[in-house]
Amino acid sequence: MRPAIKLVRKWWSYGPKPQKLRIWDPQAVGSGLLPRSSHARGLHQTGDHLQHSNLTYKHSNQVFKDIDIGNTSRRSGFQMRNFGSSTMGSTILRDERFAILEECDIHYFQKVVGERAVINDKDELEAANVDWLGKFKGASQVLLRPRTTKQVASILQYCNSRGIAVVPQGGNTSLVGGSVPVFDEVIVNLGAMNKILSFDEVSGVLVCEAGCILENLDKYLAEHGFTMPLDLGAKGSCQIGGNVSTNAGGLRFLRYGSLHGNVLGLEVVLPDGTIVDMLGTLRKDNTGYDLKQLFIGGEGTLGVVTKVSLLTPAKLSSVNVAFLACQDYLSCQEVLVLAKKKLGEVLSAFEFLDRSSLDMALDHLEGMRDPLPSAKQKFYLLIETTGSNENHDKEKLDVFLEDAVRTGHVVDGVVAQDNSQSSAFWRIREGIAEALNKAGAVYKYDLSIPVKDLYQLVEEMRAKLGDSAIVIGYGHLGDGNLHLNISAPKYDEKLLLQIEPFVYEWTSQHKGSVSAEHGLGFMKPHAIHYSKTPETVQLMVKMKNLLDPNGILNPYKVLPSIHI
Amino acid sequence: MRPAIKLVRKWWSYGPKPQKLRIWDPQAVGSGLLPRSSHARGLHQTGDHLQHSNLTYKHSNQVFKDIDIGNTSRRSGFQMRNFGSSTMGSTILRDERFAILEECDIHYFQKVVGERAVINDKDELEAANVDWLGKFKGASQVLLRPRTTKQVASILQYCNSRGIAVVPQGGNTSLVGGSVPVFDEVIVNLGAMNKILSFDEVSGVLVCEAGCILENLDKYLAEHGFTMPLDLGAKGSCQIGGNVSTNAGGLRFLRYGSLHGNVLGLEVVLPDGTIVDMLGTLRKDNTGYDLKQLFIGGEGTLGVVTKVSLLTPAKLSSVNVAFLACQDYLSCQEVLVLAKKKLGEVLSAFEFLDRSSLDMALDHLEGMRDPLPSAKQKFYLLIETTGSNENHDKEKLDVFLEDAVRTGHVVDGVVAQDNSQSSAFWRIREGIAEALNKAGAVYKYDLSIPVKDLYQLVEEMRAKLGDSAIVIGYGHLGDGNLHLNISAPKYDEKLLLQIEPFVYEWTSQHKGSVSAEHGLGFMKPHAIHYSKTPETVQLMVKMKNLLDPNGILNPYKVLPSIHI
């Protein structure tokens, strides 16, 4: 589990300081410290538009060019540098359509959410400006903490009319820079909207506000005999609104499937402030287009999710966890097929990690112990069953394990004897991301690849990079989801150029996805074409333009338009 | 199972015959029989648009008014009458934006799909013009059977440029008039695109063309140890493209969930002929907006689904079916809660039918036998378990049944001893729709209602209608999905006025959905506001205008715009 207090460290120098934005200080309001740029800088009066729909989507290894809009090449004082993706070393320019925050804006926000919910405390702002990995840092001067949907609507309506860019923020646990400002966007943090609104013990339908923390929801449900259909390493910090907006996958995906199936309803505020109440609580509702789906995985670029209705499964009484070792990757696949067959309906997780992943966790996290210390193996599997009858589940697990060992696919293994052992096994798997973060610089890739080819990429990458970095592979094997991570002492442009675009090209050639569950955020918009056709991206751009014609919501993210 | 050969009967008189359209006869091409209305009738040259976005969505019991566009009230020679919904007795006018089919159009179609795939055979056309219930009848003069996506694209591109309206058609098993033309739309039947393209036995991912019949896919998968995640009474006729386009629910929904979760990818042709390849085969892919979701349940109004990629579950070896009787509806609910608890992960269906439903099946279908003939009860449940271990499943079922009987919630019951008995039980449940159709006129309502309130509507309706009709209630209790059906000797306006809008208002007041799984089609667009807010409908209209600005695709369906 990631710590609830977010790590803020390791960010690079961020180029020249903002020349136009100064730190907002309520004491200074009216003192002339704030720039007095007029509303004419905003979108409406200049009449400028980024012509998204005319863009071509080129296969990239190109560095970004200046944004050329009409006749003027726009250069702004705001620049941001970031590392760990192919945006490295390049300069993204602030979109000058967006207005600069003024005194009157702050007054308006204070009127809407109250003075205490308009945050300009330096430490709080710094934490909110930097992502969990410490890779991306924005320069937002104000963070708002609305407590109601109406407040969110008022904020967006105002920002839209003024041309002020906004970044919606949940628990700020994005691994692709999706939840932090890129420049001076106003941060709208949903954390104060954290009420559970209803729970129906017959249907298992939970309705809550977007700012509820995932782990808190799971604890609440456990008291009623239910559980959340998703579980992540970040559960102690991440919020359900962010989970929905990023279509989070996680550890229970294999059993309970995608949020596209489990989310029954949403309340969403559109960029123009319209509140769209799609907060149904029915399993079946075929009355028109299922529009809520657009916001599931929309990464906060189409609307701000304010309330969520979710189908939650019963918490089944019997849980078993086994930690197994395999000699080779082929055996891991054989064990997966066997598990599907023998464990059938009780299989709830099938995770894998290679030896380097295990070593990473053992070396960098406290209190870790190798569950299978007798001999080092190349691959490890964490398999979980969840069912309603302990005897049945144990019998199924025994039969499965006997087969797996008899056939030689599993060479060593241990079944947790109590909750404490189960937690210890899970802690290894869930702790790898944190361990990597402690180990140094890390290049993270979250890929979907057909299971048979999945580990080949790790091996090719290892061969390619030699001793210059540690390449580790782990992830949700049952879902074909590889977390490829490259750990190095420090961020290095040469290393990055060895990794990218190779990793994306390889994934594309193997019909994979360059973002299985993390999303595109700020890190990967340029890579979208490796997994999506030009027609599909074009349609996404149309969708964005339809819902957010002024582009104020979470700009510079998801779509590649401003990067070309 | 519904018969593969569709019943075509019982339709009403349809008002005046088309005055402008004549039967197209290839022999007559060039003979002057075809009207020579010019392209100027098309959309582009008149410049007329239905101003969808300016519409207000009124609570209806209103009859439809003429469509008033700009300064001209458009009256067309085409009129259609239909029964069994509140459109009864009202007149829908043909949208004059649409061009009238000409000789050159037929030539174009022949060039694209070949002469044999341009159908004007009277019987075939008649079957394709009428829905399965025999309630709605269009006047299309031509049916096209494309064999490739490119052919579909050429057809749509052409029709879009000419302003020719199109209705996409699968197995034509819609229960809401969604799959038949309303006036003279060109029918594009996907039935000839029926190839299975790939199946992966490790991941269970099936890729196939849209015209594959559901039952054929299930049979194919069974040979490989897998099964379709959905099952419907119409499986012998319905096509997977139609299932996806209508977000079909059905009998396995309780276990495997919605198509929004199970469809991994789609290939779709947009109304302008653009082919959008979103045919991914990955369980996880968070690279941008999940646009395919719009077409799942889009009812063919946003694009034509041409290929489908679907996650299919393993076919588990152990299936048990029990047919149980309860004295009252409260007991049915108690049994549902008990089944979720005791059967847990092996519960795969929880269907209910009242005594009137059982009688309907016994009276009107051949070879039916009451599974519990000793005493008539008010309610019956069909419960299915599906699992990987027969002994475990039987033990769970035994424990569950003992509890259910001991507590008095179940008063009688029988467990199928073999496949033949299981099929006989299912035949009763699946045959009710067919039996109703044989019994006379039927008013069908497919509603989602919170389980606790669900049967109250049946009782209130029964009290309201007295002896004038037979009111029956059955459906997917596990999903809160009631099929309310009112059977009468013939369609009768007075009876309908007693049913509607009462049924919709009641459902709306109980926070239900006026279409759980059947969709809105032609029958229910006017009722959308009972389940969706004005802002949501407005957003749907925007989406339709974005993707189909000329409105050529499946017009007069889903959205209420043309009805106000």
Protein described:
2 copies of one chain form a homodimer. Chain A has 564 residues and is an alpha+beta fold. Among the domains of chain A are: 186 residues, Uridine Diphospho-n-acetylenolpyruvylglucosamine Reductase, domain 2, CATH 3.30.43; 116 residues, Uridine Diphospho-n-acetylenolpyruvylglucosamine Reductase, domain 3, CATH 3.30.465.10. Chain A contains 17 helices and 20 strands. In chain A, the strands form 5 sheets. Chain A has a 7-stranded antiparallel beta sheet with strand order 17-14-16-15-19-20-18, with helices on both faces. A 5-stranded antiparallel beta sheet of chain A has the order 9-10-13-11-12. In chain A, a hairpin with a 2-residue loop joins strand 1 and strand 2. Chain A starts with 42 loop residues before the first helix and ends in a 17-residue tail after the last helix. The N terminus of chain A is likely disordered. The interface between A and B is large, with 90 and 90 residues.
Q: Quick summary of this structure?
A:
The structure is a homodimer of 564-residue chains. By secondary structure, chain A is α+β, with helices and mostly antiparallel strands.
Topology:
The structure is a homodimer of 564-residue chains.
Chain A: H1 43-46, E1 68-69, E2 72-73, E3 79-80, E4 92-93, H2 103-113, E5 118-119, H3 122-129, E6 143-144, H4 149-162, E7 166-169, E8 186-189, E9 196-200, E10 205-209, H5 214-223, H6 240-245, H7 253-256, H8 259-262, E11 263-269, E12 275-278, H9 292-295, E13 304-311, E14 318-326, H10 329-342, E15 347-354, H11 355-364, E16 379-387, H12 390-406, E17 412-415, H13 419-439, E18 441-448, H14 454-465, E19 470-476, E20 481-488, H15 493-499, H16 502-509, H17 534-547
Parallel strand pairs in A: 6-8, 7-8
Antiparallel strand pairs in A: 1-2, 3-4, 5-6, 9-10, 10-13, 11-12, 11-13, 14-16, 14-17, 15-16, 15-19, 18-20, 19-20
Helix pairs in contact in A: 10-12, 11-13
